[in-house]
Write a structure and sequence with these properties.
Number of strands: 0
Order of helices and strands: HHHHHHHHH
Structural class: mainly alpha
Helix content: 55-70%
Number of helices: 9
Length: 225
């Protein structure tokens, strides 16, 4: 009998136009951009917690912080994927197969832990921001382990992490984040639906990724928040 995680992918015959739109959303809502997005939202909504980074800016407010996040979460992981493709270690930069994801997972674990550790040791960032990076690290580790058995959706892991982060702020710090939380849930749904339309994942893989993302952030906040 087929298990929850092994259920068939969608067989609905979507039109080329719908699949094209889904493909665009898959790129726009890619999980690599999420740490940069969360950082932007955090320093915009809660600047009083990031005054140390504002004081260390070069040309515009928080530029050093944004550059650090972009390098650790976007540039380095992308370079690893491109290099792995050039050397023949992965078949496609889209990382469609479970085997293709091994090297990027390992690299991301290193980069995310480095980001978490450096922010924590510096002591300039708030606890909830450090907890976010710890949650990202935990989610990637779980996804890496799970990759040996099933290809869970990293898109929904990422957006589930955003939802979990906002839930931690809401219940842990009493912040009114209802509007961004609703937006994050909507974007998580769009990301998951896009992956289903493209036959990249089964519903079980999409939902399991979302759960991993949410629980990783909540666990990290309980540890550091």
């Amino acid at each position: 009998m087929m298990t929850f995680m092994e259920e068939q992918k969608t067989t609905v015959p979507f039109s080329p136009a719908v699949r094209a739109v889904a493909n665009v959303f898959s790129y726009v809502l890619h999980p690599l951009f999420i740490p940069l997005l969360v950082t932007f939202l955090a320093v915009t909504a809660l600047p009083e917690f990031f005054t140390a980074f504002k004081g260390n800016s070069f040309r515009w407010e928080y530029d050093v912080l944004f550059i650090r996040v972009a390098v650790a979460s976007v540039l380095f992981p992308m370079l690893v994927v491109v290099l792995a493709k050039a050397l023949g270690f992965v078949e496609s930069i889209t990382l469609g197969g479970q085997r293709d994801r091994i090297i990027p997972y390992v690299a991301s674990i290193i980069f995310y832990f480095w980001a978490f550790y450096t922010f924590l040791r510096e002591g300039a960032s708030p606890d909830f921001y450090n907890a976010f990076w710890l949650g990202v690290f935990i989610a990637v580790v779980i996804s890496f382990v799970a990759n040996s058995f099933v290809k869970i959706s990293m898109h929904t892991v990422g957006w589930g992490g955003v939802v979990g982060f906002l839930l931690a702020l809401m219940f842990g710090m009493g912040m009114n984040v209802a509007l961004p939380l609703a937006g994050a849930v909507l974007l998580a749904g769009i990301a998951g639906s896009s992956r289903l339309i493209l036959d990249a994942h089964s519903p079980g893989e999409v939902w399991s990724g979302f759960v991993v993302g949410v629980l990783s952030q909540l666990a990290a906040y309980l540890i550091l928040g």
